[in-house]
Design brief:
The structure holds 2 protein chains of 2 kinds.
Chain A (H helix, E strand, L loop, with lengths): L4 E12 L2 E13 L4 E5 L6 H8 L7 E6 L2 E2 L7 E4 L11 H11 L4 H14 L15 H13 L5 E5 L7 H18 L2 E6 L2 H7 L2 E6 L4 E7 L11 H18 L6
Chain B lengths: L4 H5 L3 H13 L10 H15 L11 H10 L1 H35 L1 H15 L7 H8 L3 H25 L3 H9 L4 H38 L5 H10 L3 H29 L12
Helix pairs in contact in B: 4-12, 5-6, 5-8, 5-10, 5-11, 7-8, 8-10, 10-11, 10-12, 11-12
The chains are: A alpha/beta, B mainly alpha.
Chain lengths: 256, 279
């Protein structure tokens, strides 16, 4: 294997009151440097659990995760996480939130301030730097989350349904911005989503999960040229085929 | 990345409005409504003394009490200062012990298991019931009073701090862990500020409890302070000094509470517009 992020036979079993629950089984995944990979699946298929394991926030019960050649033992300095509910500290201004990861990494205050300003500029948040998170809209909050994740120049961004709580218009806007950032920074992106169109729009490669126990049921390379047009025939054909790959899990229920 | 007009426009206007309202209401005439019951009480009191419901020896008139503030201002000031100093010392020590302990207990499950029952038992003991013991151990003087105030303030501070830590959103701790923040940074930048509103609730209750305790303790364990002054006034049949003492106790209580509230608003300004405001 030559991937930047490698999962080797990763499994996860939780102990619950009603007995052991197997959340993940036999996950083998390999992300090349600079690759944009979407983990696609319905709720409860273990895709978020896998991301948490890769982020070092949970431990695998089986197998191992290797990032940049080192076996994972807790959060890696090479990765940054963007959380679904943005995870901003309500008592910190936007500027302080953006600087937090650098503070945690021991970056000097002067350097912190300069880098934070740079990222605020890049994400269009300069005018909101001294606001508190609750004074921002959902889309702007997630921009802060992304800016914060980028400050430490991570080799990989781990994104856990980052746009799931946003309205369609804002989501589309942020997807485009994310692609622009990804293209300019050339970071690896691991992106968890349950949106088929979102995955097709963003990913180089889509890893499809199925539940009980969570496992990889298909891996699909997306060869559509960028920027992608959701109205194009190729886009719609791929969406349709992915829908069919997910449907068996739904046992015939219609997908929105 | 440019913020679209759509996004910028969706900044919740309710936040801006809540801020304006909060700023305005602090000085609005509505605030003066709080004086109404006090005025009514004063009028009732005046009427009662005119009608001589009780003999003047027992129930002094408002003017006589007002005079007591003039005649005995030195006594009142000295004793009020003694009481306030004791409360400040006792509550400060309690704060320095309870907040760090509460942050630790709230964060670490094992410490919680270890301390939970003990806290629940000891917080049920009214500090006043410990006066006899405090006297035996420390004799008459400042020491027993301060120890009792410390105990009165300790439990509300401790319990509220623990409660504050428990209320932290789990994602926020995850954010810090994912960023490889040290445990010290997690305490200082996340757990402490997140618990701050609850710490202030604890402080308000602690100061309230400490103030109640100091007056009682001074009636028994010390030879100065407002509690002592009131008891002494009773022995010398100076009912106007008793009432003056009660008035000053209440006034200081109100002042302390307002002070803490103002401090809380300042320290926790990030909460402005986050919590529900009463209609």
């Amino acid at each position: 294997m030559t991937g930047f992020i490698e999962c080797r036979n990763v499994g996860k079993t939780y102990d619950s009151a009603s007995g052991a629950v197997e959340a993940l089984r036999g996950i083998n995944l390999d992300c090349a440097p600079g690759e944009f990979v979407c983990l696609l699946g319905l709720s409860g298929c273990g895709k978020s659990t896998l991301l948490q394991i890769i982020a070092g926030l949970e431990s695998a019960s089986d197998g191992a995760v290797v990032i940049g050649g080192h076996e994972l033992d807790g959060p890696s300095p090479l990765t940054s996480v963007v959380f679904q509910d943005h995870g901003l500290f309500p008592w910190m201004t936007v500027r302080k939130n953006v600087a937090f990861n650098m503070k945690a990494a021991g970056v000097k205050p002067a350097e912190r301030a300069a880098r934070a300003d740079e990222l605020l500029e890049m994400t269009g948040l300069t005018a909101f730097a001294d606001r508190y998170p609750h004074e921002l809209s959902g889309g702007m909050r997630q921009r802060v989350g992304i800016a914060r994740a980028l400050t430490t120049r991570p080799k990989a961004l781990l994104m856990d349904e980052p746009f799931g709580a946003l309205d369609a218009q804002t989501r589309g806007h942020l997807q485009e911005e994310l692609l622009r950032i990804w293209e300019s920074q050339r970071t690896t992106v691991l992106f968890v989503t349950h949106g088929i169109d979102e995955a097709v729009f963003l990913a180089d490669r889509i890893v499809v999960f199925s539940p009980r126990p969570g496992r990889i049921s298909a891996v699909v390379d997306v060869d559509l040229p960028r920027p992608r047009d959701p109205e194009s025939a190729g886009f719609m054909a791929l969406s349709r085929s992915l829908r069919h790959k997910l449907v068996p899990d739904l046992q015939g229920a219609p997908l929105g | 990345m440019a913020v679209s007009a759509l996004e910028a426009a969706s900044v919740p206007p309710i936040v801006a409005r809540a801020r304006q309202a909060a700023r305005a209401s602090r000085f609005a005439p509505k605030r003066l409504l709080g004086l109404l019951p006090l005025l009514a009480l004063l009028v009732a009191w005046q009427l009662a003394t005119w009608a001589e419901v009780y003999p003047p020896v027992l129930l002094p008139s408002p003017e006589r009490v007002a005079m007591a503030f003039v005649v005995d201002y030195h006594d009142i000031l000295f004793n009020a200062l003694a009481s306030v100093t004791r409360v400040i010392v006792g509550v400060s020590i309690a704060f320095c012990v309870a907040v760090p302990a509460g942050l630790m207990i709230g964060r670490y499950r094992t410490l919680d298991m270890l301390s939970d029952w003990t806290i629940q038992i000891f917080r049920s003991v009214p500090p006043i019931s410990l006066i006899p013991m405090a006297l035996l151990f420390f004799g008459i003087g400042d020491k027993p009073a301060i120890v009792l105030i410390f105990l009165a303030a300790l439990w509300p501070l401790l319990i509220n701090t623990i409660f504050g830590v428990r209320g932290i959103e789990r994602t926020l701790i995850k954010v810090a862990r994912a960023a490889r923040a040290s445990e010290w940074l997690i305490f200082r930048d996340i757990i402490l500020p997140a618990a701050m509103p609850a710490v202030f609730t604890g402080l308000r209750l602690g100061i309230g409890g400490g103030w109640l305790t100091v007056v009682t303790a001074e009636m028994i364990a010390v030879k100065s302070g407002l509690g002592y002054m009131i008891l002494n006034a009773q022995l010398t049949f100076r009912s106007e000094l008793i009432v003056a003492g009660i008035v000053i106790i209440g006034a200081i209580g109100l002042l302390a509470d307002q002070g803490i509230r103002a401090l809380r608003t300042h320290v926790c300004r990030w909460q402005e517009g986050l919590t529900a405001a009463a209609e």
